[in-house]
Amino acid sequence: MGTIDTIDSQILTILQDNSRTSNAEIARQLDMAPSAIFERIKRLEERGYIQGFTARLNPKPLNLGLLAFVQVRSRDRVSDLTTAERLAAIPEVLEVHDVAGEDCYLLKVRAPDTEALGRLLRDRFGTIDSIVSTKTTIVLETVKETSALPVSSDRVPPYENER
Questions:
Q1: How far is residue 161 CA from its own chain's centroid?
Q2: Which CATH architecture does the domain made up of 6-55 adopt?
Q3: How far apart are CA 71 and CA 96, in angstroms?
Q4: Is residue 160's pLDDT more than 70?
Q5: What are phi and psi of 88, to 5 degrees?
Q6: In DSSP terms, which residues pair with 69 in a beta bridge?
């Protein structure tokens, strides 16, 4: 796959800020030809640095203003992710993380309100037999929420097949 250089790092940063930025605009910002930007983006996709392009939606007008984190304990064996897969299939569950510590999974969930969150926990999580317990933290205010990664060509290690 290879490492990325400073230009690739700048392209990734621009695309994270706005994935709809045109190749021509990126080329203008970086003082390059649009065709060179196109080739670099294509290479970044092929190498797995870019996984896809999405729209970032505002949860409030979509009636999903309540954000909560749910810690889940399950009876799963260490390598068994059956519960995680069942939780991941629930649309309101945005993230499922297999974590170290007492709990097995940490989930990020969205719901319209506390009543809907309660129903989600009872009716959806409650039907998964392997779940032993849950502990929910409701977010009162979000100070920062991003999926943007801090991109630096200095941090990206070479891949195994290029060492």
A1: 27
A2: Orthogonal Bundle (1.10)
A3: 10
A4: no
A5: -65, -25
A6: 108, 137
